[in-house]
Amino acid sequence: MIVNSTKTMAADRSQQLEWRTVAEYFKPDAALRDIYVNNTSLADWQATLDRIRERYAPLKFKIDGQPADLPPQVADIFRIRERAAPC
Asked: Could you point out which of 38, 40, 44, 56 has its C-alpha 20 to 30 Å from the C-alpha of 5?
């Protein structure tokens, strides 16, 4: 699934997707999803992480398969990706 946006979601809430328009892509079928969201900013990623953290805490986070604390800033996760495999 690819989502294209010309505005950052963090700056413009009107760009948020409605669940009914994407729900079919998330139906359980034992497959992992590759989801690409183009034209996003670090602020968009941070807003997404913050919302997930609020709604689904506690979260599990691993680096190279080992449990680790989820960094508070999404920029830290991107830095980790340069040297390891966070999940």
From this structure: 56
